[in-house]
Write a structure and sequence with these properties.
- The complex is a heterodimer of chains A (305) and B (282).
- Chain A is α/β, with parallel strands linked by helices.
- Chain A is 38% helix and 19% strand.
- The longest helix of chain A has 21 residues.
- The C terminus of chain A is likely disordered.
- With 282 residues, chain B is α/β, with parallel strands linked by helices.
- Chain B folds into 2 domains: 195 residues, 3-Layer(aba) Sandwich (Rossmann fold); 58 residues, no CATH class.
- Chain B has 8 helices and 11 strands.
- In chain B, the strands form 2 sheets. Chain B has an 8-stranded mixed beta sheet, sandwiched between helices. In chain B, strands 7-8 form a two-stranded antiparallel ribbon.
- In chain B, helix 2 crosses helix 3, helix 4 packs across helix 6 and helix 5 packs across helix 6.
- The chains are: A alpha/beta (305), B alpha/beta (282).
- At the A-B interface, strand 1, strand 2, helix 2, strand 7 and helix 5 of A face strand 1, strand 2, helix 1, helix 4 and helix 7 of B.
- Strand 7 of chain A pairs parallel with strand 11 of chain B, so a sheet runs across the interface.
């Protein structure tokens, strides 16, 4: 059963949808926008997951964050600026307030925050803020651990720089222009693959050290939550044609978290989880993991159920 | 200034499904507009801008209502059970409900992409006092062929060359009743065949404006280009939404649309005034 619901936050009306369970076990699920997509997500994946999870006894909720989908508010003019806000936790306060309000309104004992990509990042940041939201678990779908950046960084001021620095800046600018040109070509995936293969061969990165463009704040927030006993399910998508190997962030966090972090790998699908049975596999992974959320596994000082 | 209490989401029972509507009210609306959205895969990109337009209208004393077609977005229903005929009946159903809300004020149908085409068909059948179309699709197959391109491009990403199917094989699958997964939706053969039957009526097919022969109801057909992105999908937007690695190319997520919206709102108000006067004389 779907219901149209609204919340007020910071003077804005936020629109959402509730999927209520005929009988619940006290745990609710709140889905957070995947990137800039509306609250139903690509292929209406969130809507279908929420329907199914509500039928299994988990009332589920989906809201549009300010400026997205139906909700009031403004987002930055450029995608990259929006991604920056997300990865710097700008939406965490809003998401935590939503979770707290849902918990109060629907009498939930605990709430699980779930999201794809940026939605996963906001879930982590909101749980770290919490403020009485009662976050008992996280479902993090293909969460990026690195920092997004613009392909057009502002040009450095050249006036007054010594010749050597101006030459280096010129070379860096030329490299960026070449990279942007490559990214706009049809054959870019092949070039990217070759690039990463070469990079892997020539990599001098020390094993276990985080790459320089890691989102350190996000990794620290997630590690902190796991230390506090918040359970997390990471779900990653693995397309049939493998993508370039990158740093094993999940292994890095899991090494410090033990069983509190579970990792489900879904083969053959993409980042949005709608291809090749991805939606069904995500549902199975979440439903199975929710059953492991048992009393006594909630965060210290958090709600007990 | 938008008055929050005049924004309300609600479900309507239509044809066995619950159709999600979101009303953007005005205190004393001069007219009402029913916003008929694009094909579900395009809704992802345009929704926030579409809603911005609804709020702009409400701010100009034009009440607006947007809705999701059955089986898509916030509405209930299985996508494989849906086709263009069903979505056209959704428009008719929401129009019926709106008839009880407008208190005699003129009702305009306004569609974007597929919504423009479906709104035109509903208008030609006698619904609404005016019609505004933004980049309406010329026919149903055009919409579906664009959707098939998504399937083909995903196959490039997901399948080895030997496993990829050409477009005509997918079309054959649909015609023989098999479902095809496209961007998270299961297309049915019924969707394809309903698309084969759906064409824009000739008088409305070219950009411009006019009045409907028998009733004198006004209509307008406008084509939007990339400058209207994210209201319409653009290549730069698609790249920014699916950035490879950490580098995000430049693309607009949001725009100041006021300069674009105002002439359209003014057109609705002008035509609504004409409609009201005509009704009074009648």
């Amino acid at each position: 059963m779907r219901d149209a619901i609204t919340l007020s936050w910071d003077g804005l009306r936020l629109h959402g949808t509730a999927h209520l369970a005929p009988s619940g076990n006290g745990i609710g699920i709140m889905f957070i926008n995947s990137g800039s997509l509306p609250r139903s997500s690509r292929g209406d994946l969130y809507a279908h997951l929420a329907d199914s999870l509500a039928e299994q006894g988990y009332p589920s909720f989906r809201f549009d964050l300010p400026g997205l989908g139906d909700s009031q508010g403004e987002v930055p003019q450029e995608f990259v600026e929006f991604y920056r806000l997300v990865q710097e936790s700008a939406y965490a306060g809003c998401a935590a307030a939503m979770a707290r309000e849902l918990r109060r309104t629907y009498g939930l004992q605990g709430i699980v925050l779930a999201g794809i990509c940026g939605g996963a990042q906001t879930s982590v940041f909101a749980a770290a803020k919490d403020h009485g939201a009662g976050v008992t678990g996280l479902v993090l779908l293909d969460m990026p651990f690195f920092l997004y950046r613009s392909s057009n960084p502002p040009a450095p001021k050249k006036a007054g720089l010594p010749l050597r620095k101006r030459v280096l800046a010129g070379i860096a600018g030329a490299k960026l222009r070449i990279r942007d040109w490559v990214l706009s070509q049809k054959w870019e995936p092949v070039a990217t693959k070759a690039y990463y293969r070469m990079k892997k061969m020539t990599s001098r990165t020390k094993a276990g050290a985080l790459p320089p463009n890691s989102n350190q704040v996000l990794i620290k927030a997630l590690s902190g939550l796991l230390d506090q006993g918040v359970a997390a399910l990471m779900v990653t998508a693995h397309p049939p044609i493998p993508e370039p190997q990158t740093f094993d962030y999940i292994g890095y966090v899991a090494a410090r978290a033990g069983e509190r972090l579970q990792h489900a790998k879904i083969q053959g699908t993409t980042h949005s989880f709608v291809e090749k049975g991805g939606a069904e596999a995500v549902l199975d992974a979440i439903a199975g993991w929710l059953k492991t959320l048992t009393p006594g596994r909630s965060r210290a000082g958090g709600p007990s159920f | 200034m938008i008055k929050s209490e005049l924004e309300k989401g609600r479900y309507l029972e239509l044809g066995g499904e619950r159709v999600y509507t979101l009303s953007f009210g005005a205190e004393a609306p001069a007219a009402w507009v029913l916003l008929c959205g694009p094909f579900p895969t395009d809704r992802l990109y345009s929704l926030a801008a579409w809603v911005k337009w609804a709020r702009y209208l409400a701010g100009r004393d034009i009440a607006a209502v947007r809705f999701d077609y059955s089986g898509t977005g916030e509405s209930t229903g299985r996508f494989p059970d849906m086709d263009f005929d069903r979505w056209r009946r959704d428009i008719e159903g929401v129009c019926d409900w709106l008839a009880g809300q407008t208190k005699g004020r003129p009702l305009f149908l306004h569609g974007l992409g597929m919504g423009g085409l479906l709104a035109q068909k509903a208008f030609a059948a006698g619904l609404g006092d005016g019609l505004l179309m933004w980049s309406p699709s010329p026919n149903g197959l055009e919409i579906l062929k664009q959707g098939l391109m998504i399937r083909l491009s995903m196959d490039m990403l997901l399948c080895r060359a030997a496993d990829r199917k050409p477009a005509n094989e997918y079309i054959q699958d649909l015609k023989s009743g098999r479902q095809v997964q496209i961007d998270g939706y299961s297309w049915s053969g019924a969707l394809w065949t309903s698309g084969e039957r759906l064409f824009m009526d000739k008088p409305y097919a070219s950009p411009g404006e006019g009045v409907e022969g028998g009733s004198g109801r006004p209509w307008r057909h406008v084509v939007l280009d990339d400058r209207a992105s994210p209201l319409v999908k653009s290549q730069s937007m698609l790249r920014a939404m699916n950035p490879r690695a950490a580098v995000v190319p430049s693309a607009p997520l949001s725009r100041d649309f006021r300069g674009f919206f105002e002439p359209h709102a003014a057109w609705i108000l002008e035509k609504a005034q004409g409609t009201s006067n005509a009704n009074r004389h009648a």
